[in-house]
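$ ./design --mode recover --in tokens.txt
reading tokens...
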């Protein structure tokens, strides 16, 4: 099994290893670890993951673990959906009051 070490924009060093050997055309499951993460991160990537640029792979890893970012608060998707729905309903309500005359 192959492995790679990448450094993300926050300076965290990640050690990533493929769970199985890469087969042409088949995605690979990576197991990535870093000092601040208690459990290994599992990430599915292209079978040519060894050729992905270091910064690109680091971005994929960081995107899979947003809770590691300092000061980052995870907002549930339902909150975002409700917020956008409320804006849409407010616009709809304003338009309806103008057209009912």
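writing sequence...
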């Amino acid at each position: 099994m192959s492995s790679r070490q990448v450094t993300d924009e926050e300076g965290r060093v990640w050690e990533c290893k493929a769970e199985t050997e890469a087969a042409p055309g088949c995605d690979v499951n990576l197991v990535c670890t870093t000092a601040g993460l208690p459990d290994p991160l599992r990430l599915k990537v292209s079978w040519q993951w060894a050729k992905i640029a270091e910064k690109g792979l680091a971005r994929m890893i960081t995107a899979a673990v947003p809770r590691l970012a300092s000061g980052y608060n995870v907002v549930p998707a339902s909150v975002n959906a409700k917020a956008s729905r409320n804006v849409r309903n407010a616009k709809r309500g304003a338009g309806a009051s103008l057209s009912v005359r």
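exit 0
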